């Protein structure tokens, strides 16, 4: 199985700050990476696929980059509605696997 | 706009079979794409259980493969999950999802709201 490792496990930032989350794969996954956000008590919401392609309706303050084994998700200007836990997921091979999550909190 | 809705018992006894259904509206499951299940134990991360394609061909997580069945009911436009011989470790919120295709990318674009299943006597 491909292991996905996220860092940090949690981040606390102020409104307007730039926040970056890292995801590392245990082997080359090309750009077969997706990002999700989960708000407390809610189902995850899909944000991005192909490491950098936003799903329809996802605001452009979210951006993604990377290829191979190292990826980042950036929130350009943190807002209160962005709080939650962010997960990465590889889909290049079965079983599909997720990172452990990064909890984003507002200071 | 596709919508997915899980349903099933909230409590299952140890050693019994967990059965859930995902009702789909806004898209026919036998047209295209993958339809699957993901679970999340309380306070923990996400675990992929398995999925089926639009013809009913299935792929499962090897860690659960011997206990899992995913099958379609095209007459009702829904698909089901069965997990046998459950233990407390199977207590989780279960989500049904759709995976769609864009060129070489098969990604999750839609999630159900999730349903909590507790394994308890």
Give the oligomeric state of the chains in this entry, treating copies of one chain as homo and distinct chains as hetero: heterodimer
| Major sheet summary line of chain A | 7 strands, mixed
- The fraction of residues in strands of chain B falls at over 45%
Helices and strands of chain B, in order, run as: EEEEEEEEEEE
**What is the first-to-last residue Cα distance of chain A?**
36 Å
Q: Average pLDDT of chain A, to the nearest integer?
A: 97
Written as H for each helix and E for each strand, in order along the chain, the element string of chain A is EEEEEEEEEEE
Low-confidence stretches of chain B: none
The radius of gyration of chain A is 13 Å
Identify the biggest protein-protein contact and residues per side: A-B, 24 and 23 residues
Shape of chain A: globular
Total DSSP E strands of chain B: 11
Give a count of the beta strands of chain A, DSSP E runs of length 2 or more. 11
Give the helix/strand class of chain A.
Answer: mainly beta
β-strand amount of chain A: over 45%
Amino- and carboxy-terminal Cα gap of chain B: 39 Å
Q: What's the helix count of chain B?
A: 0
The helix/strand class of chain B is: mainly beta
Query: Spans of chain A of 5+ residues with little confidence (pLDDT < 50)?
Result: none
- Sheet of most strands of chain B: 7 strands, mixed
